[in-house]
Amino acid sequence: MYGSRIFNDLERKDLWILKILSFLQTGGLVIIFPFLPLHMKELGLDFAQISFVQSLTSIFDTLVPLGLGYVSAHFTNIRYLFIGCLLMNALSSLLLAQVSSTSTTMFLEYIAARTLLETSRSCCLNLFESVNLMTIKTKHADYGIQKVFGSIGGAVFGPLSGYLLHNYSFETTLHLYSILQVVFCLIVCLSQLQFEKAEGKKENGDTDWKSLLRGKTIIGFLAVSLFLGSLWSFSETFLFIHLETVGFSRKDLGQSIAVSTVIGILVSLNSSHLLDNYGWQAGITLTLVSYAVRLGGYAIISKGEYPQLLFLESLKCLGNPLMMLTAGFFIKNFVSLHDIPRFQGLFGSVYFGVGKGLGSLVGGSIVGYCGTKLSFQMSSLLCMMVATGVCISLRSTIARKDGEKDKPY
Fold this sequence. Notes:
By secondary structure, the chain is mainly α. It is 81% helix and 0% strand. The chain has helices spanning 2-10, 16-32, 36-43, 47-72, 79-97, 106-139, 143-167, 170-190, 209-212, 216-246, 250-278, 280-298, 306-314, 320-334, 340-370, 372-406. Helix 5 (79-97) runs antiparallel to helix 6. The model is unreliable at 199-207 and 404-409 (pLDDT under 50).
């Protein structure tokens, strides 16, 4: 079944550019972003400063997608807006590479460069997903299969990043990230993807914010996105710092990312079947359970337990990557083509902005007061509680649909 689906998709030459961009986009993300907390630690920042930086950048991650959604609503074609954000992202990576721990204004320099990096990254990610989803929707393509190539990009660049960090420096990986963004930009310039939006109603029509937020389904999805964004931020901020403190090398961490992204290929292939049959709530539930298992496992992991590290990191593909697949499924099926850029901006603001800020700020406070292990254990328990609630909601939804089918007409 998988072979025929992939083969049929590979025969479509109009989708190859999308696959290449997914490869570069995910590959670029795994090169530096999982390791940025370690970069801050290497520069001499403590837990409080790391939490402050993460929380500060989350303010821009909240405002920028909302502003981007508003601005993109006034663009018929968002190609050049996308190109400008990509170039800014490449420049910000080079600026971050110039920050030195010996500078007397190191902290301020880092905040400025990191804020620019996160802001431009947020723009690029939201615009790419908008283009990605608009193209898939107009071409009736399989979203999960396109994401397979993103997983391959992570599997390639994850261990490469770990190798570079282990043998060279953070500056090398930041330069590589900048190069990838320039290559990405050149491909966008030459591609023929769906950069143009469908015509839609203007004021007081289907494109205003009230229409986007109508219905319990939209509100429920955004609420759980907020919680999962907090979890993602908390784990990404403190996990690698904890593992390095336990005794794992950066090379080990890079290899663990590769394992996760390889398994992520299977997740991408199965995502369409899972979500089409059981709905977006099933993807959310599985994501929450994976966070519960990972955080609980990391609370008890010890130095030298490399197989356990690989197992726990293999579940990472059921965390943020599955959440992104679920979000793509939700937007594709519940949001009109014209509203996709605006809703993508709203989702990005909630997940990458407010959620990220809460995860870093609240998580940093809890870690500082309770310690990393106890914080992971409490987060694991909270994940299972929320997963149970979502699962109950899913079962009631399925039961209600079955009851409607059984009604006589």
